[in-house]
Design brief:
Helix content of chain A: over 70%
CATH topology of the largest domain in chain C: Rossmann fold
Number of helices of chain C: 17
Radius of gyration of chain C: 29 Å
Strand order of the largest sheet of chain C: 2-1-3-7-9
CATH class of the largest domain in chain C: Alpha Beta
Largest sheet of chain A: none
Structural class of chain A: mainly alpha
Largest interface: A-B, 58 and 61 residues
CATH superfamily of the largest domain in chain C: NADH:ubiquinone oxidoreductase-like, 20kDa subunit
Chains: A mainly alpha (219), B mainly alpha (423), C alpha/beta (361), D alpha+beta (148)
Number of domains of chain C: 2
Shape of chain A: globular
Number of strands of chain C: 9
Oligomer: heterotetramer
Order of helices and strands of chain A: HHHHHHHHHHH
Strand content of chain A: under 5%
Order of helices and strands of chain C: HHHEHHEHEEEEHEHHEEHHHHHHHH
């Protein structure tokens, strides 16, 4: 199999399989979660907290100032790599073309050198989070194989994309194939690791926001 | 598997619900909850990271309620939850968690870790892994009526004393009163002035109220230890008494988790809404104040601060009321750092104060409150939870700090404008 | 004449020393060698014997031959062609029928082990190769026979190099490339649909000049011509970097000569010399004329999805797979959901009211 | 042909791509080598993709010099010295006047303009042969034995 075959496979059957497993897994996970149900709260709620669950989905992205000061590394690198990852994902023209071809939606791209710089910043932030995860006692205790796997499959697409653009290590065709394959790996692993948080955090924040609002601590 | 472990795991299977499944699915193990927990910040021991405290629950959820977990279990690839593990986790679930709920406010993905700890205790207690101190308190509540073993005669003694002191009658078992007041054992034994304060305030405001000889104890050890069946029996005593007396409202006393037990958990424990309202004494005082029925005179001149009891503020939504009341009676009120819903726990909530095993850890965790007080430099701290009050006093004594702790209701009562008799 | 070198040929044609200098400089340029290498070209010219060439055409469209003959620049390139002895070529030879086949057999016998074999078109393998025969001989048999006596093979065009159009899905004739059949001879792939004439003459010039095959990449292509991608050598590359793209073939961006990536240009993954060598005597090339690169010098370029869709898009629609996955996921979800509810119901049923005695183990 | 002329063609200039600057830099470096070490060099203009605008920029920057020459061998080769002495523009054409290769040579004189030594020798012999034909009796004529 040559690089072009690999590229064609990754753009064709590979992508179908990866998206299939991703969607299968995520739908399954949602059923797993919601099938457990929850009891209706019989305690009368305080008034004034309507919509707090929905608001918490967004407000929880902003940390309390004092808490920010207590975990600056996690907050800062977390912000940088999340925002960086999504800028690279959503504002590099080839990615927009992919989204457009699947969904019909499109928007203006950022200049490639800008995306390139953001990719580098994202990679650095991801490396810092990994080092911090290994060095910091709390994060080391909490970390499982799944956490390192999730890190790896997040890191690889950014790295291979960067390498492909800069013609590092391999020829562009092979590197592009590896880049797409790394994204497919991310999609396949996604529903079965903590990466599910991208979807379920909105559920969690909603439950959390609703719970607090019923008690009169609405966000 | 022992029968007790079987029961414990069965209980955990029962309590695992959609929110918990979502929380575990969302956790990215960022560890930010550690920095929200005073048991971690004051010890720097990573095992006190809140989310780590529910690790056995997470594994059980994965093994029982997810496809991948079931497959892993089928092939013997997952580590089962054992008695040894639960025993190891007992200090994490009971000693180092006051259910203060701070981690639930901090978690970036929105996990309510406190909720999970509460649920996990259901499995821990029933499988015999609750600490002795908390078991004892629960036993006394069930068998004698109160965690400190206080019975009606003791209350009657305190009633007579307070009646003598205030010159007012303290009503008991009055049918059709508007309010039925509850007390915590600690108030009966350590702070009976609270009862006198209530009598004065209600008399002045013209509130019709009563105590019940059948249910005067508000605290609920069943909640703290985490046995819903027992908590239900305990809360049912109050419900039965209140409904028998046909009161319109029940007043939760200055006690944090008693409020949680009665206001938020109670209806869910008994499986139906109450036939009466539940108010916290601070809410009621604030209502009377707004209605102009609570007039005060004079203000405390020395600087004072307010310690928000977790269950009343962060987990109960009573934040502004104590500040309005304090504004009337204190000339120099100063906020601590991280006030209101961001407060730091005294370290003794959620059954920790009843847990002898946790004493050293609790005093270590008190360093957080000490640091807050040191930074503020006040000599009076007002609060609205008898449990906080005792824990704070113990902590202050341990660290030789010269700070006085005062109950807010008593403070308000001291500044009451007494109405002329006969009115 | 068969033993003469290219230098002898040039002399016989009465080329002057300046002409020789020009020939060497042009050849070096054609081989994409640095100008200083012209001297080496000159030195090598006197040493290499002029080879016989047999050109076999299999499943092809004659586009390759058309391209080579049409674009052929008389003086220099004709010299190259003059320097070879093209003993058999369907389209170009005068002979036909039995005479033509005899000529081929004769040439093979005479130069056994030394001739250069050029092939255009792919070879069908399905149904014993019945889909393409010459004089009753299957392409497969003819290739094997001719390859056995060849010094080296040049696969001209994408069909011979990688299977090309006949190989495209669903490949009804079972077409394959030369390199999938012949494993024991050096093979130079000169892909392209058609290949750039100057690249083929460059490869021949290299073989004639140095008597050896040039440096090849992992797809068997001469690195001198296929070493870099169209994208990297494209004069529109700065627009890609700036994020300026034509959205349609007639918009402002297209008129301004912006990057054609969004219109499906396959330049980033295509290796060829179009951007530098250009076509029609250096007049222009596809991107310069406003159309994206089709990627014709790469394997399976026919199967890479629409020519007019960006390289980063899926080749085949994913919506079907997505819908199926959601449906299967929902079915599995319902199943696990029911199982979860059962587990929970069982736990509830097994619940015995807790008593104080339960707390102490 | 009317048909083709009838089609409206809009010629749009797309602008250069900066490669002319690269070529000019290389010329500068080679010129310095020529001045300092007498080393001659040559740049193959087909090695980099150049747009018409790039050519214009190259031509404008280098300018026109004093020498224009044409060599006729294997089709024409046109040479001119640019406005920068020592920088020569050499274009090889085939007999159909199509460009075969194009070089910038940085040299005292492009090699193709210099008469090869062997050609001079051949020329001398050819000249003598012609003189001998003109005057066979002349002592100079028909004397190939003269030392050369």
């Amino acid at each position: 199999m040559n690089a072009m075959d690999l590229l064609l496979w990754s753009r064709g059957p590979g992508l179908g399989i990866a998206i299939g497993i991703f969607l299968f897994g995520m739908v399954l996970r949602l059923f797993e979660i919601y099938s457990l149900g929850r009891k209706r709260d019989l305690a009368p709620a305080r008034t004034g907290g309507e919509g707090s669950g929905w608001r918490t989905m967004f407000t929880r992205s902003v940390p309390d100032r004092a808490q920010f000061k207590r975990s600056p590394v996690v907050f800062t690198t977390g912000y940088i790599f999340h925002i960086g990852f999504f800028i690279v994902l959503l504002f590099l023209l080839p990615h927009i073309e992919l989204i457009r071809s699947i969904s019909g939606l499109s928007w203006p791209a950022l200049p490639t050198p800008v995306v390139d710089l953001i990719a580098v910043i994202t990679l650095i932030a991801l490396i810092v989070t990994l080092i911090y995860r290994i060095m910091d006692p709390v994060r080391r205790l909490l970390s499982t194989f799944g956490d390192y796997l999730a890190w790896t499959v997040t890191f690889l697409p950014v790295l291979t994309g960067y390498m492909a653009y800069h013609h590092l290590l391999f020829d562009y065709t092979l590197m592009l194939a590896l880049h797409i394959l790394s994204v497919e790996l991310l999609l396949v692993v996604f529903p079965f690791t903590k990466l599910t948080h991208m979807v379920t955090l909105f559920i969690s924040r909603w439950y959390n926001g609703e719970w607090f609002a019923r008690k009169g601590v609405a966000s | 598997m022992t029968a007790s472990l079987q029961k414990g795991i069965n209980a955990l299977r029962e309590v695992l619900d959609a929110p918990i499944a979502s929380y575990f699915s969302s956790c990215v193990r960022c560890g930010m909850c550690a920095e929200a927990c005073l048991f971690y910040t004051e010890t720097k021991d990573p095992k006190y990271t809140p989310i780590h405290k529910v690790e056995p629950l997470r594994r059980l959820w994965e093994q029982e309620y997810t496809l991948t977990g079931r497959v892993k279990k089928m092939f013997g690839l997952s580590k089962p939850v054992t008695d040894e593990e639960l025993e190891e986790w007992s200090p994490l679930v009971y000693d180092s968690c006051s259910q203060c709920g701070r981690c639930s406010m901090v978690c970036p993905v929105g996990n309510d870790i406190t909720y999970m700890i509460r649920k996990m205790r259901e499995g821990m207690a029933i499988s015999g892994h609750a600490p002795e101190g908390v078991i004892g308190a629960t036993k006394r509540t069930i068998e004698l009526g109160s965690p400190m073993g206080i019975k009606l005669p003791a209350l009657q003694t305190q009633i007579s004393k307070q009646e003598a002191e205030t010159g007012l009658t303290i009503p008991i078992d009055v049918q059709g009163a508007d309010y039925m007041a509850l007390l915590s054992s600690m108030e009966i034994i350590n702070f009976p002035e609270y009862l006198g304060a209530l009598a004065k305030i209600f008399h002045n405001a013209g509130v019709s109220w009563t105590l019940s000889s059948e249910a005067f104890e508000a605290t609920n050890s069943g909640i703290q230890i985490g046995v819903a069946d027992l908590a239900r029996d305990i809360v049912m005593r109050i419900v039965t008494a209140a409904e028998k007396l046909k009161v319109k409202s029940v007043i939760s006393p200055e006690c944090g988790h008693a409020f949680t037990a009665l206001r938020w958990e109670g209806p869910n424990l008994i499986g139906r809404p109450y036939g009466f309202k539940v108010v916290h004494i601070l809410e009621l005082l604030d209502e009377l104040r707004s209605a102009g029925k609570l007039k005060t005179t004079g203000k405390e001149s020395e600087a004072l601060t307010y310690h928000d009891p977790c269950q009343i503020a962060r987990r109960g939504g009573v934040v502004e009321q104590p500040r309005r009341l304090l504004g009337d009676v204190a000339a120099d009120f100063r906020e601590m750092s991280d006030p209101g819903v961001w407060n730091w726990c005294c370290g003794g909530g959620g059954g920790v104060s009843a847990n002898d095993r946790a004493e050293h850890l609790r005093l270590t965790a008190f360093k957080r409150k000490k640091a807050q007080l040191d930074a503020l430099g006040v000599e009076t701290m007002v609060t609205a939870c008898a449990n906080c009050r005792i824990v704070l006093e113990e902590g202050l004594e341990h660290y030789n700090m010269n700070v006085k702790v005062v109950g807010l209701t008593e403070l308000v009562a001291e500044h009451l404008v007494e109405q002329e008799a006969g009115k | 004449m068969r033993d003469e070198t290219l230098l002898d040929t040039l002399k016989r044609r009465g080329i002057s020393r300046r002409g020789f200098l020009k020939f060497c400089a042009t050849t070096a340029s054609m081989l994409a060698l640095p100008p200083a290498m012209a001297a080496e070209v000159a030195a090598a010219l006197g040493k290499v014997r002029r080879p016989a060439v047999i050109w076999l055409s299999f499943q092809e469209c004659t586009g390759c031959t058309e391209s080579l003959t049409r674009a052929h620049s008389p003086s220099i390139e004709s010299l190259i062609f003059d320097a070879i002895s093209l003993d058999y070529h369907h389209t170009l030879q005068a002979a036909s029928g039995h005479a033509a086949e005899e000529a081929r057999e004769h040439s093979m016998k005479q130069d056994w082990g030394n001739y250069l074999l050029l092939v255009d078109g792919s070879i069908p393998l399905k149904d014993d190769g019945v889909y393409s025969t010459i004089a009753g001989i299957s392409n497969l048999q003819m290739l094997k026979d001719a390859a056995a006596g060849a010094a080296a093979i040049v696969s001209v065009g994408t069909c011979a190099a990688y299977g090309g159009l006949p190989h495209a899905n669903p490949n009804p004739t079972g077409a394959v490339s030369v390199s999938e059949i012949i494993k024991d001879k050096p093979i130079i792939n000169v892909p392209g649909c058609p290949p750039i004439p100057a690249v083929l003459t460059g490869v021949l010039a290299h073989y004639l000049t140095f008597g050896a095959i040039p440096d090849l990449d992992d797809l068997g292509r001469p690195k001198a011509f296929f070493g870099e991608s169209i994208h990297d050598r494209c004069y529109r590359r700065p627009f890609y970097d700036q994020g300026k793209f034509a959205k349609t073939f007639d918009d402002e961006g297209a008129r301004n000569g912006w990057c054609l990536f969004e219109l499906g240009c396959k330049g980033p993954t295509t290796h060829n010399a179009c951007a530098t060598t250009k076509w029609n005597g250096g007049t222009s090339w596809p991107v310069q004329s406003g159309h994206g690169c089709l990627g014709c010098s790469e394997p399976d370029f026919w199967d890479g999805g629409s020519f007019y869709k960006a390289l980063s898009t899926p080749i085949s629609p994913v919506t079907g797979a997505a819908a199926a996955a959601v449906a299967i996921g929902a079915a599995a979800g319902v199943a696990i959901g029911l199982a979860n509810r059962q587990t929970k119901a069982a736990a509830k049923a097994a619940h015995q009211k807790a008593t104080i005695a339960d707390l102490e183990k | 042909m009317n048909g083709l002329n009838g089609i409206g063609v809009k010629v749009v200039h797309v602008g250069g791509n900066g490669n002319a600057h690269a070529v000019l830099r290389e010329i500068e470096a080679r010129l310095q080598l020529l001045v300092e070490k007498g080393e001659e060099g040559s740049i193959d203009l087909s090695g980099l993709p150049l747009m018409p605008e790039d050519y214009d920029l190259l031509e404008e920057t280098l300018g026109e010099g004093e020498v224009v020459a044409e060599v006729h061998s294997l089709g024409p080769t046109r040479i001119h010295e640019t406005g920068i002495p020592g920088v020569w523009w050499v274009t090889h054409y085939n007999s159909d006047d199509e460009v075969l290769a194009e070089f910038i040579e940085v040299a005292w004189c492009p090699e193709i303009l210099l008469t090869p030594e062997d050609d001079v020798k051949d020329g001398l012999e050819a000249l003598r042969a012609r003189l001998f034909e003109l005057n066979p009796k002349s002592p100079l004529g028909g004397a190939p034995s003269l030392d050369l």
